[in-house]
Amino acid sequence: NIFIVAVNLLDFYKNHRLPISDQLILGFSVFSLLYGLNEGYILYTDLTRLYSYRYITIEKHFFMYVNSCTLWFSALLSLHFCLKIVNINHRFYIGLQRRFPTLFPWVIIASPIGYFFLGLYSVLWREQECLQNTTSQNVSAEESTRCSWYLFIFMITCVLCTFFCSVSALTIASSLFKHMKRIQENTEGSRSPNMDAHIRAIKMITTLLAANIQIFTSVLILVLLKTSLPWGTFLGILISICHIFSSYFLIKGTKKLYKALTEILGRWPRVS
Questions:
Q1: If I label 22, which of 80, 142, 227, 240 is the partner at 20 to 30 A Cα–Cα?
Q2: Which pTM value belongs to this model?
Q3: Alpha-carbon span 42 to 39, nearest angstrom
Q4: How many domains does the chain have?
């Protein structure tokens, strides 16, 4: 993730612009990196026992924020690739293809910032009120719902992101498989550069989808069931592994990133 962020920032500094796909990959990598740092800090505080109720509240909201943004960027990345690769003769789809580049900056900026301020409001004001209410014996259903509104928004966000990512990824995979079959028939079974590019794209999309589903499942288990150690640690590490594999296949599937990686590795002295 550090490599992806560094390459894209250097490219932006050099060219003063980033394509939409690179912006989405950069956003995905930034939030994956934040999740890894947060997970390391959680393990440190668990070992040293340096935590309080306020710390647990902030950590819970930050965990939900980072993972929802990661799912959001992976869904947008899958949708962007779908609009770029797959052609569907439908009015809504064609309109979305044309308007996505103009809508994109507002969507990518407004969603994470809006979700951040919702989380900040929940931590600073609502959690304190809810904590005072939980000390009383009778808590109404309305009060319980009012105190868990941020969790409901988080769940809806995760479900929608996973749904869009799944539909987009499956549509891309189906389209690429059909295209590969046509290429294979036209070239009489010989392997072409287009075939290799399609295979890399399918690997990247399927890995992104698998990671999205795994992160979604693990996050819901952790948040809804309030899983404690050791299962909480195991699921947290599993999410980190999903981030690592996603980043690896993003590098393999992106020409710019893969070229930068091969150039760096090529400069290392080889031990004979």
A1: 240
A2: 0.80
A3: 5
A4: 1
Domain extent for 237: 2-130+146-267
Cα–Cα distance for residue pair 93/156, rounded to 1 Å: 23
* DSSP class per residue in 11-52: HHHHHS---HHHHHHHHHHHHHHHHHHHHHHHHHHHHHT---
Residue 166 clears pLDDT 80, i.e. is over it = yes
Query: Is the confidence at residue 143, as pLDDT, over 60?
Result: no
| Contact indicator for 1, 243 with CB cutoff of 8 Å | yes
Burial class of residue 145, CB neighbours in 10 A (0-12, 13-18, 19+): exposed
Residue 232 lies in a domain: yes
3: tokens are 């490599």
Cα separation, 64 vs 151, in Å, equals 8
165 with 208: CB under 8 angstroms?
Answer: yes
Angstrom distance (rounded) from CA 216 to CA 238: 11
**Cα(46)–Cα(35) distance, rounded to whole angstroms?**
16
Q: Is residue 139 part of a domain?
A: no
**What are the pLDDT digits (tens) for 206-252?**
777 777 787 777 777 776 666 555 666 777 777 778 778 778 778 87
Question: 141 pLDDT exceeds 50?
Answer: no
Q: What residues contact 25, with CB distance under 8 A and at least 6 apart?
A: 4, 8, 77, 250, 254, 257
